[in-house]
Write a structure and sequence with these properties.
Length: about 300
């Protein structure tokens, strides 16, 4: 989910639970995790640091703690610099950090239902975990969050009215997606991944067919479309490309992809994500392909 939605949900929960004085701490905790969008300035140039990217190591269980400590340290430094009133920290006390940490874990909990998933155990493992109920970033939720924030800021609705209406829409949205998720399960048994699309009635089903990956679109009420197959290895073999698989560029490609195919053309070994290359999946938009030839590395 987007940072604005994370912030609004954290603020509403703090308010509803009777802790309005902790709203700033909850909001900071809920949004600090998305500061990892800046990490790509480094990892884009250093493939071995591929976990340092938006949705990467900062979205792990350990990363949540580290980012929360940094956020609270930032609040303390801002207080020492006179940018924040000391009374804010004094009134909050040790509970202030606890709320920042709670806001950060709330962020992770809100992201878990969505694809492409979170590396919860990073840096020990880069395996992603997701409930596959929601598609990646939701434009709808971001638009709703922005709409209500503007209405509340302009005084069109009161804070309480805005929170009630916003909460109702959010719950309804999640309920519709969850019902669609349950309704799709019988038809999508046996899939490696059933990836939710923006349309809550549509899913992209991916199967392991042995020598190939198979992808089929599924729409509730209409069933599965004809399959599209992607050969895992073309003009090469798993044994031949084994030495290339450990390259950081290839590891980064696998991290961003559901499936990876390998082919050899004119002496060039090409690792690629056919789903993102063909446009069947748009997110994440970068690092869709790696070309390796005569010791030279070329990524796209």
């Amino acid at each position: 989910m987007d940072s604005l939605t994370h912030a609004l949900v954290a603020a509403i929960l703090a308010y509803v639970l009777g802790f309005p004085q902790f709203i700033p701490f909850a909001v900071i905790g809920a949004v600090i995790i998305d500061a990892d969008v800046l990490f790509s300035l480094i990892s884009d140039r250093h493939p071995s640091l591929y976990l340092f990217i938006h949705g990467g190591i900062a979205h792990s269980l350990g990363g949540v703690v580290v980012m929360s400590v940094l956020a609270y340290a930032g609040i303390a430094l801002a207080t020492l610099a006179g940018l924040v009133s000391p009374s804010v920290l004094v009134r909050a006390g040790p509970a202030g950090f606890a709320v920042v940490l709670a806001g950060a874990f709330l962020h992770i909990a809100m992201d878990l239902p969505a694809t492409p998933g979170l590396p919860l155990l990073a840096p020990v493992s880069d395996k992603k975990y997701a409930l596959f109920i929601l598609p990646g970033p939701s434009i709808f939720l971001m638009a709703v969050s922005l709409f209500f924030l503007i209405w509340i800021a302009l005084g069109v609705v009161t804070l309480t009215e805005g929170m009630v209406a916003y909460g109702a829409i959010l719950v309804l949205f999640l309920l519709v997606r969850f019902i669609a998720f349950l309704a799709s399960r019988p038809a999508l048994r046996g899939t490696m991944w059933a990836i939710p699309q923006v349309n809550p009635l549509r899913w992209l089903a991916i199967y392991d067919s042995g020598d190939a990956w198979t992808a089929r679109d599924y729409r509730i009420g209409l069933g599965l479309t004809d399959p599209t197959s992607y050969q895992k290895f073309m003009n090469t073999s798993q044994k031949e490309v084994a030495s290339c698989s450990a390259l950081p560029e290839v590891q980064r490609l696998r991290y961003h992809s559901y499936i990876v195919t390998v082919k050899k053309e004119d002496g060039v070994i090409i690792f690629s994500d056919p789903l993102r290359v063909s446009g069947r999946i748009f997110y994440p938009p970068h690092f869709k392909e790696v070309r390796i030839a005569s010791g030279e590395r070329d990524t796209a």
